Structures are given as C-alpha cells and as structure tokens.
C-alpha cells in the first residue's frame, strides 16, 4: 500500500473529484474545453499533489506538495464562483462544494502542521 492511500485527506480529495465531475457534466457543452476542463483539472490536481508529495524523501517536500494541493482547491472554488456568476450552478450546490472544499483545505493544513520541517 502506498503512503497516500492511508491518508484520509487523499480519500476526501477523490470524493471532491467525483462531486466536481457530476456537477460539471451539467455545464453547457461550449464550456467543455474551457471552464469545465479547468475546474476538473484543478480538482484532480488536489489528489495528484497529495499522492506525489507523499512519496518525497522529506516532510519539507511533502509540505510543498500539500500547499500546491491547497492552491488547486482554491482554483476549484474560483472556477465555481465563475460558474455561479454564469448561472451554471445554483447557490445551494455551490455552498455544498464550497463547504466540502473548505473542510478539505483545513485537513490539508492540519496535515502540514503535523509534519516535521
């Protein structure tokens, strides 16, 4: 088993990806190669950065990747704000994913703080 597979935050990030894919399937077809793609790639990047960083040789490097995962989560939220502004999703759905992302970022920050420098 890989180290990242033992991390709850990695499993949570995969759940977020599933939420994002389900949501963006309903975006207009014209957004397929723009906003849809950007939000999906940012969501996937969260999981990928956790996984890639977990196998680094030092906790310092792992922290760097966890911070990139946080940046990707912030990118997801920004994309969702744009989607909300364009009426591609409703406020209730936005609020749900916003809250899930906020919890995920808090867990990433807690993991960062638990690692050695």
* Quantity of strands, as a count: 0
Strand content: under 5%
Give the terminus-to-terminus CA distance.
Answer: 25 Å
Briefly note the CATH topology name. Answer: de novo design (two linked rop proteins)
- What does the largest sheet look like? none
Order of helices and strands: HHHH
| Helical stretch tally | 4
Shape by Cα distribution: elongated
CATH architecture: Up-down Bundle
Could you report the average pLDDT, rounded to the nearest whole number? 97
How many whole angstroms does the radius of gyration measure? 15 Å
Helix content bin: over 70%
SS content category: mainly alpha
Uncertain runs: none
* CATH-level-4 superfamily name: 23S rRNA-intervening sequence
What would you note in describing this structure?
- Helix 1 (8-24) runs antiparallel to helix 2.
- This protein has one domain (3-114): de novo design (two linked rop proteins), CATH 1.20.1440.
- It is built from 4 helices and no strands.
- The chain is mainly α and 117 residues long.
- The model has no long low-confidence stretch (mean pLDDT 97).
Question: What is this structure, in a nutshell?
Answer:
The protein is an all-alpha fold and 117 residues long.
Describe the secondary structure blueprint for this structure.
Elements: H1 8-24, H2 35-54, H3 59-85, H4 91-114
Helix pairs in contact: 1-2, 1-4, 2-3, 3-4
């Amino acid at each position: 088993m890989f180290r990242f597979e033992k991390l709850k935050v990695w499993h949570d990030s995969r759940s977020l990806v599933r939420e994002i894919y389900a949501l963006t399937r309903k975006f207009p077809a014209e957004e397929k190669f723009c906003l849809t793609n950007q939000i999906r790639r940012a969501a996937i990047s969260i999981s990928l950065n956790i996984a890639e960083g977990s196998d680094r040789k030092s906790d310092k490097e792992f922290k760097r990747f966890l911070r990139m995962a946080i940046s990707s989560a912030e990118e997801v939220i920004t994309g969702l704000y744009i989607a909300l502004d364009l009426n591609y999703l409703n406020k209730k759905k936005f609020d749900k994913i916003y809250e899930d992302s906020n919890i995920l970022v808090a867990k990433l920050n807690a993991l960062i703080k638990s690692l050695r420098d």
